[in-house]
Write a structure and sequence with these properties.
Elements: E1 3-13, H1 19-29, E2 33-38, E3 44-51, H2 52-62, E4 70-78, H3 81-84, E5 93-95
Parallel strand pairs: 2-5
Antiparallel strand pairs: 1-3, 1-4, 2-3
Length: about 100
């Protein structure tokens, strides 16, 4: 089984609608590592790490988001351990402060 680390940026109505908490819940339920945070430009970004098929499935779910969100665009790109290590020490998945 191959593993993947992917950085995603989600645009649309994704702040103020519980998107970050939804991502955290979905990632933890899928046993993925990584983090999620809001950006001042109104987007949400996240890094997911784990088995490639589970990461791919998480990205598919992020294209929809929670019921109150309206995802207009999602970009994804490979990431590395440096980006993954932005999460809080001792946490598998973190909600980080807005940047």
């Amino acid at each position: 089984m191959s593993s993947a680390i992917v950085h995603v940026t989600v645009r649309g109505r994704v702040q103020g609608v519980g998107y970050r908490n939804w991502v955290e819940h979905q990632a933890l339920a899928s046993r993925l590592e990584g983090w999620v945070r809001n950006r001042r430009d109104g987007s949400v970004e996240a890094v997911f790490a784990g088995p490639a098929d589970i990461v791919a499935n998480m990205i598919v779910r992020c294209r929809r988001g929670p019921p109150s969100a309206r995802v207009e665009a999602l970009t994804e790109e490979p990431a590395g351990a440096g980006e993954l290590n932005l999460r809080r020490p001792g946490q598998g998945f973190s909600v980080l402060p807005t940047v």
